[in-house]
Design brief:
The complex is a heterodimer of chains A (561) and B (434). Chain A has 561 residues and is mainly alpha-helical. Chain A contains 23 helices and 4 strands. Chain A folds into 2 domains: 255 residues, Orthogonal Bundle (MetI-like fold); 282 residues, Orthogonal Bundle (MetI-like fold). In chain A, the strands form 2 sheets. In chain A, strands 1-2 form a two-stranded parallel sheet. In chain A, helix 15 crosses helix 18, helix 15 packs across helix 20 and helix 19 packs antiparallel against helix 20. Chain B is of the alpha/beta class and 434 residues long. Chain B folds into 3 domains: 166 residues, 3-Layer(aba) Sandwich (D-Maltodextrin-Binding Protein, domain 2); 118 residues, D-Maltodextrin-Binding Protein, domain 2 (3-Layer(aba) Sandwich), CATH 3.40.190; 107 residues, no CATH class. Chain B has a 6-stranded mixed β-sheet, sandwiched between helices. Chain B has a 5-stranded mixed β-sheet with strand order 9-8-10-7-11. Chain B is globular, with a radius of gyration of 24 Å. The termini of chain B are far apart. Classes of the chains: A mainly alpha (561), B alpha/beta (434). At the A-B interface, helix 2, helix 3 and helix 11 of A face helix 1, helix 2, strand 2, helix 3 and helix 5 of B.
Chain lengths: 561, 434
């Protein structure tokens, strides 16, 4: 079955060209700009200038500090939750799974705005504390605020990866440890956690990258001395010519790649492979009543924190005034009326851009999966690696790269400049969300046994017909899951969106929310639009889970070892 | 199956192509820093009157707006630039990015106080008037037992420590105007002393000018330095806030101009005339907009307590000099950021130490305390240096000029490190003051 149809080679080349133009090209432009002077000669002086500015050094340190600390706190939240779900008989497991999804359905900056009202200087919590105990907790101030918001937003990445990793540990390892007298904390520290390291590192490096690159949250919390906001401020207020902005971009890219490569190296360095997996899962232990109380305490505490921004946004969208009070006042539905008359275009834009982008993603993702798994075209792995680059690429950098690389390029049919058109959103979203779609497509295709295709071939079906009649229908669940994942993550994207939105009529919902939050009368409509966005994303997440569950009736762990 | 597939692909491709093109003949792109309520109101009213045209809003803060216009090629630039800060228009017309459109509606007076409503050279027109003042949250003030301020100088009192908020001139044109107004009203050295003390009393230097009224409305901050319509709009939308104009304020026009090299200058001009017509001016009185019209007749339709700059009720002691402001625009912006925005933590600590020492000494004179104040509250550029043409030229150099941008970065670095060292020294001195 591993024959290389010329059509497939052409498709592979076309995909590679697409990725080179819209992913590698813009990044190289950014790197090139950071290393050249006005005449195009190589120079290192922009980096020296960067290093000479104490603000930049400080921003650099702050970004590292915030990203590192967030990983630390996210770990503290995630480890007990992951361990509880996987190792114990425990009815709260559903709650934990909910916890793993809830924060991700809301863009971090929306959460930040809502958390100001709940945990801010005069937020509900601090007002209650002030009134009753005479002190307040400055948790939303400065860098701490960012760490707080981002920890609650991104800990699910660690939770999900770690749970998956824990689930595959062979129980005999644990039993061997127990036989040698280890139990409790020691067992966890010496046996279980080390074996789950690959999953943990994957999650932690993802959290690090996301926080390091995040633009929306620092902007909403008025923190400017970090790298991503500095790059944004330099490029928007000084102009697309400012070299320091590009230097920051190069640093963001380097760190993202280093974090990805580091996690890969860390995992490869040692052998984590287990002889048997999946089948011999450890029996789930029972919790004592005291442990159950502790577990529920932890879960409910985290759940309340995680739910607070959602609750805040919901309240904001239904009330007129929320000022220096624990709860808002004057119930109204007018905010929803406003957005359904004024922001219809934005809702439609989001559906259009993200829908098209997700559609492109599953087409390209499906094609790449097929080419990588089912053909022997030389260099086919390059496609896979190129897509992985997109995962490590900060949205901010790609946005700046687009503005720079495609400046002055016009679309055909009088549609105006590429960077000022709706097309740029579709391209940007599809490139950045491609890794998610690809992963779904790969997983879906591995589950289609080649024998089915061979059978079809034996009865005389051509390659195109096999793909259409056998492969695509069998992959459908995975393709749909990939579509939904791409769609919802693109709908919540903000850093690229802020940079690429040139006109209000082109703006998607995420930008609309950002815009509404910039006027006093706009908070309510902004919150209402957030509720609409969250509902769409939450529905999408639910559907994709259902689809993924339908596509994999039993766990496919160990399939590719 | 195949047919269905191709047909639906074709249909979606066609649909996708149709959406952005639209049926309108002329599109007016408006670069503006104004909030969505205002732009939506004008867009709706204008499109209702001229159904053939479409208004496109490009919402950008003032400095990002200037950068955006500059980077577009002639012929594909947006039509309208509409923002509060007059100096932004000076910058644009200085770079030949505005068309000379002359004065408009003859019923609009040529001056408010001593300040010309329209650009005397004719490159832009005043569309609304704005004064700068202080807005506070009445619940916050009551809970913290703070008196309402009347003047900028009230804000430097120790009781307001950590209760204020201000934005940064580099991020908000209106904040730049407020700072420049104080600098012109009080003089360079004394003005900076006041600005630095206000910065030291501030809980936050917000990234956007809107961060200030937003934080005051929701009770995060007590008092904010804001442009009047933020305060008035919040008050008129039912928020527990109040607003006052201090005497050192200037009433200046928020302007509108036609960008040179725009796609449809004719339609652009039509939009400008609309904003200055009776209809266009009346929109400013809407509760969630609450701005001051330039057309005096409109005030007859306003609520009784609506501020009227033509009645002489708002006293503007400062005659704002926009040429002076424009000449040192970039220096003031950068100076503020290097001394206040980016060193805010240190400035607050120094302010606290000095205020504590003042309390401890209870009015007794102290050389150490005087020196601490001198260190913490003096600008890194003195009165003489700010008139130095070399310094001003350095900050106006072309962005592509690598040499100049290195030199500029070096100057800024010098300011930043001096400010940091001064704040640290001021803290030591204040703590040991006897």
């Amino acid at each position: 079955m591993k024959r290389n149809h010329p059509g497939l080679i052409a498709i592979a080349i076309a995909i590679a060209a697409f990725l080179f133009i819209f992913l590698i090209g813009p990044i190289l432009t950014v790197v090139y700009t950071a290393f050249t002077d006005g005449q195009g000669n190589f120079t290192f002086s922009h980096f020296l200038a960067f290093a000479e500015i104490s603000l930049m050094r400080e921003s650099f340190a702050n970004s590292l500090y915030v990203a590192g600390t967030t990983v630390f706190f996210a770990t503290i939240i995630a480890i007990p939750l992951a361990y509880l779900t996987v190792r114990f008989q425990f009815r709260g497991a559903v709650l934990i799974q909910t916890l793993g999804v809830l924060p991700l359905v809301m863009p971090a900056f929306v959460g930040a705005a809502a958390m100001q009202l709940i945990f801010g200087r005069s937020g509900a919590v601090n007002l209650i504390l002030m009134d009753n105990f005479g002190f307040s907790i400055p948790i939303m101030e400065g860098l701490n605020g960012i760490i707080f918001v981002e920890t609650l937003h991104y800990f699910p990445f660690i939770l999900l990866n770690l749970s998956a990793s824990l689930a595959t540990i062979d129980s005999s390892m644990e039993e061997a440890g127990q036989n040698l007298g280890a139990s409790g904390w020691r067992l966890f520290r010496k046996i279980i956690f080390p074996l789950a390291i690959p999953g943990y590192i994957a999650g932690a490096s993802l959290v690090f990258i996301k926080v390091f690159d995040d633009l929306g949250t620092p902007l909403v919390l008025n923190v400017t001395n970090m790298l991503a906001p500095q790059a944004y401020l330099r490029v928007t207020s000084i102009g697309i010519e400012d070299p320091i902005g590009y230097v920051i971009c190069v640093i963001l890219v380097l760190f993202s790649i280093a974090a990805m490569a580091g996690s890969w190296w860390f995992v490869k360095r040692r052998d984590y492979a287990l002889v048997s997996r999946g089948g011999a899962q450890a029996p789930k232990r029972k919790l004592t009543s005291w442990q159950t109380a502790m577990a529920y305490g932890w879960i409910i505490g985290v759940l309340m924190l995680v739910l607070s921004p959602h609750l805040g946004i919901l309240l904001m969208s239904f009330f007129k005034v929320w000022s220096f009070s624990v709860l808002p006042e004057q119930f109204t539905l007018v905010h929803y009326a406003t957005i359904f008359t004024d922001a219809k275009q934005m809702i439609w834009n989001t559906i259009l851009y993200c829908g098209l982008a997700a559609f492109i993603d599953i087409i390209i993702g499906g094609a790449i999966a097929y080419i990588v798994i089912r053909t022997t075209i030389p260099g086919r792995q390059i496609l896979d690696h190129l897509v992985t680059v997109a995962l490590a690429m900060p949205g901010l950098v790609l946005g700046i790269g687009y503005l720079r690389a495609f400046r002055g390029i016009d679309l055909p049919f009088g549609m105006g400049a590429l960077t000022a058109s709706w097309v740029i959103f579709v391209i940007a979203y599809s490139v950045r969300r491609l890794p998610y779609a690809l992963r779904s497509c790969m997983a879906a295709l591995t589950q289609v046994h080649p024998a089915l295709e061979e059978a079809a071939e034996n009865v005389g079906a051509g390659r195109t017909r096999i793909i259409r009649k056998i492969v695509i229908p069998l992959m459908m669940g995975g393709l749909l899951a990939g579509f939904v994942t791409s769609f919802i993550t693109a709908a919540a994207e903000i850093s690229e969106t802020i940079l690429l939105t040139s006109r209000e009529s082109l703006a998607p919902m995420s930008y609309g929310i950002y815009l509404y939050f910039q006027s006093i009368a706009g908070r309510g409509p902004g919150a209402a639009l957030s509720v609409v966005a969250i509902t769409i994303v939450a529905l999408g997440t639910y559907i994709s889970h259902r689809l993924a569950a339908a596509a994999t009736p039993h766990q496919q762990v160990g399939n590719r070892t | 199956m195949r047919h269905l597939f191709t047909r639906s692909t074709l249909a979606s491709a066609l649909l996708a192509l149709l959406i952005p093109v639209g049926a309108h003949a002329e599109t007016i792109s408006v670069v503006t820093s104004f909030p969505k309520e205002l732009t939506t109101a004008y867009k709706k009213a204008y499109e209702a009157k001229y159904p053939g045209d479409t208004v496109e809003i490009l919402n950008k803060n003032t400095s990002a707006g200037i950068a955006y216009v500059r980077e577009q090629l002639a012929g594909s630039r947006p039509e309208i630039f509409w923002a509060s800060a007059p100096d932004a228009f000076e910058v644009l017309s200085g770079q030949k990015l505005l068309v000379n459109i002359g004065p408009g509606n003859p019923e609009i007076p040529s001056k408010v106080g001593n300040y010309p409503v329209n650009d005397p050279k004719g490159f832009y027109r005043g569309q609304a008037l704005a004064g700068y003042g202080m807005m506070w949250n009445t619940r916050y003030m009551k809970a913290n037992k703070l008196p309402a301020p009347k003047e900028w100088s009230d804000l430097i009192q120790p009781i307001y420590f950590s209760h204020l908020a201000i934005s940064s001139p580099s991020r908000s044109g209106t904040t730049h105007l407020t700072v420049e107004t104080i600098l012109q009203g009080e003089g360079w050295t004394k003005g900076w002393e006041q600005v630095l003390k206000i910065g030291g009393n501030s809980a936050a230097i917000t990234e956007r000018s809107f961060g200030v009224p937003d934080g005051v409305s929701n009770g995060q901050f007590g008092i904010g330095l804001v442009i009047d319509f933020f305060g008035l709009a919040a008050k008129n939308s039912g928020m527990p806030v109040d607003f006052v104009y201090p005497s050192v304020t200037s009433i200046v026009p928020a302007n509108i101009g036609l960008i040179a090299g725009a796609k449809s200058p004719g339609a652009g001009m039509r939009f400008i005339e609309f904003t200055l017509s009776d209809e266009g001016q009346k929109l400013l009185l809407q509760k969630d907009i609450s701005r001051l019209p330039v057309l005096p007749a409109i005030y007859k339709q306003a609520p009784a307590d609506y501020p009227n700059p033509f009645s002489g009720k708002i006293q503007a002691k400062v005659n704002f000099d926009s040429t002076l402001s424009e000449s040192r625009y970039m220096v003031v912006r950068s100076l503020f950021d290097q001394m206040i925005t980016f060193r805010h933590k240190e400035l607050v600590a120094a302010t606290k130490a000095i205020q504590d020492a003042e309390k401890r000494l209870a009015g007794r004179p102290s050389a150490q305390l005087d020196e601490a104040r001198q260190l913490a509250f003096s600008p890194a550029v003195d009165e003489k240096q700010i008139k130095d043409p070399a310094l001003l030229a350095l900050f106006k150099a072309k962005k592509g000029d690598a040499e100049a941008s290195r030199a500029k970065a070096k100057v800024e670095e010098e300011w930043a490190s001096r400010a940091k060292a001064n704040y640290a020294r001021a803290i030591t001195l204040a703590n040991s003051a006897k």
